[in-house]
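Hey, resending since the last one bounced:
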Amino acid sequence: MIKSIIFSCLLLFFSMFSVAQQILPGANQIAQYLPLIKGKQVAIFANQTSMVDDIHLVDFLLSKGINIKLIFGPEHGFRGTADAGEKVGNYTDSKTGIPVMSLYGSKRRPSIEDLKDIDMVIFDIQDVGVRFYTFISSLEEMMESVILAKKQMIILDRPNPNGHYVDGPVLNESMKSFVGMQPVPVVYGMTIGEYAKMLVGEKWLSESVQKTHDSLLKKGKSPIKIISCKNYSHKSFYSLSIKPSPNLPDMSSVYWYPSTCFFEGTVLSEGRGTTKPFQVFGHPTLPKNLFSFTPISKPGATSPKLVNQQCFGWDVSGSPESVRKKVGNKLHLSFLLEAYKLFPDKDHFFILPKSGDLKTAFFNKLAGNEELMLQIIAGTSEQEIRKPWEPELTEFKKIRKRYLLYPDFR
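The structure tokens again:
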């Protein structure tokens, strides 16, 4: 009897400890932000990942009597079903009747006019911690609009599933685009909230926005407020329960994405139109003794590269745990180098613009420089390619440290 009681007490203790240590996103810190938005006219930047437990943030706030006037939708749309790069128009959400304004269509940011009847913008979206994943660009655009309009913005922070390391080339500022707007590495090891702090702290916002921000602060009006996660650190391995976009269906794709997304800038399939996007990649002209797969049209990838063509290449899939161990804490170039080596028509390996301007080549936008493409063409080893990254990575890590909200991975 006594043993049974002791055992029950131990079970209760460990279950309480487990609950206490559960990572909770900012959206779950309801008491911290609900009083701030009561009685306000609110706009929300969100997608299918914006959840409070098992309820969408929009539905949750409506149930609490919050007046949601407008929803902003990012790449892939508010419901997260549009293809990558697909332009999305404005519409009315059929479930709630709330107008949805696309910020991945005719414009990337709301105008002051769009925000005139809005008191506060809530930004809540699941990032994956990769520079060319466009949600940090949307964050920057939204911050600029909100500050210029002299409104307020609440960022509900979420853990970064790739937040346990920093790696890759730092973007050259001459290569700025929507898939890379600031001088950060491919994997930057920060949450959305930390990244927002860095944008302001490093004065990376436009000059007029920065002046407006600083002026508001002097008047005691902070335009940006971050609701932090609970129990998260950069040592955490946070597993997503909802796919952040149509072609990141599971954690294995999320872990490989920083390395294998470079294939988007080549003629090879990056696995869109398969069940393992960013885990399989190849081309019909590669050696036929390699792994084979055939991309098909499917929701979220209606027109994938090399659709209905048998491709030969690589399958790096596996369980999330095995993939995480294989990826480790680095960006991998070995598959890209091997694919170029084996590709028979090397002059057409990279997708090049008709203008011939390499700065506008999508591969170079992903890399954030022109050097990586030239190094691959020259047959440079991965070790030699990585050497020039180190000084800039070291400098970025110093900058990054200033803005962390959570314990670091070292």
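Residues 251-379 form a domain with the Aspartate Aminotransferase, domain 1 fold (CATH 3.90.1150).

Sorry for the duplicate.
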